[in-house]
Amino acid sequence: MRKFCGLLAILIAAALPGALSAQGGTVTGRVVDANQRPLSDVQVGIVGTTRGALTNQQGAFTISNSPTGAVEVRASRIGYQQSVQRVTVGAGQTASVNFSLSQAVVELGAIVVTATGAEQRVREIGNSVSTIQTSELEMGPIQTVSDLIAGRAPGVQILPNSGTLGSGSRIQIRGTSSVSLASTPLIIIDGIRTNNDVESTELFTGGQKTSRIDDLNPEDIESVEILKGPAASALYGTAAANGVIQITTKHGQRGTAKIGAYGQHTNLDILRSMVPDNFLAIGHTAAGAKTECDLTRRASGVCVAVDSLYQYNPLFDAANSPLRSGGVDKYGVNISGGSPTGDITYYLSGEREKGTGTVIDNSLDRINLRANVSSLVTPKLRLSANSGYITSLIGLPQNDNSGGGIFLNALEGSPTPTNVARGQGFRSPYTASNVSFWSNDEDLRRFTGSANADFRPLSWLSINGTAGVDQTNRFEKGFIGINASPSGFFSQGLREQFRRSQRDLTGTLNANAVKEFGAFTSTTAVGTQYYSSIFDWTYAAGQNVAPGTKATSEPLSADENGNGDKLFGLYGSEQIGFADRLFVTAALRGDKSNTFGQKIGFITYPAISASWVVKDEPWFPQISALSNLRLRAAYGESGLRPPRLAAAQTFTNEAAALGATTIPGFVANNVGNADLEAEITHETEFGGDLGLLDDRLGFEITHYQKKTSNALIQRPLPSSLGAPPGDQFSGGEGSQFFNLGSVSNKGWEGAFRAEPVRMENVDLNLRFNFTTNKNRLLTLGDTSIPPIVISLQRDIAGYPIAGYWAQKYTYSDANGDGLIQAAEVLAVPRLEQDDTTFNTSFRGSPFPTREYSFTGDLTLFKSFRVSGLLDHKGGNYLFNWGRRSRESEASAVFGELRQVPGAANLEEQAAIIARRKGLGSMLYIEPADFWKLRELSVRWSAPQSLVRRIPSTNGLSLTVSGRNLKTWTDYHGPDPEVNLPGQTDSSTDPGRQFVADLLTMPAPRTVVVRIDASF
Amino acid sequence: MQHPSNSTRGSRRLPLRGLALGAVLLGPGLAACDLDKTLAVKDEFTVTPAVAGDTLYLDNTYAGARSQFSVAIGGVENNFMGLVAHTGLASDEMYAADQFITRWVLDLRDWDYDNSNSESDESFRWLQRARVESLNAASLFAGTSQGGSARHAELYNIAGLSTLMLAENFCSGVSLGRVTTSGEFQYGTQLTSAQVYDAAIAYFDSASALGSAGARQLNLARIGKARSLLDKGDFAGAASLAAQVPDNFAPYYAEYTSASERAWNAVNQFNYEEKRVSATPQEGTINKGLPYGRTVDPRTPINPVSIVSNAGGTVRVFLQEKYTDFDSDIPLATAYEARYIQAEGALNANNVASFETLLNQARALQGMGALTSAQIGTTTDARVNTLFKERAYAMWLTGHRFSDMRRLVRQYKRSYGSVFPTGNSMTVGNQPYGTEAAFPIPFDESNNPGVKVTPGIGSCLSIEA
Question: Cα separation of B272 and B324, whole Å?
Answer without folding.
Answer: 8
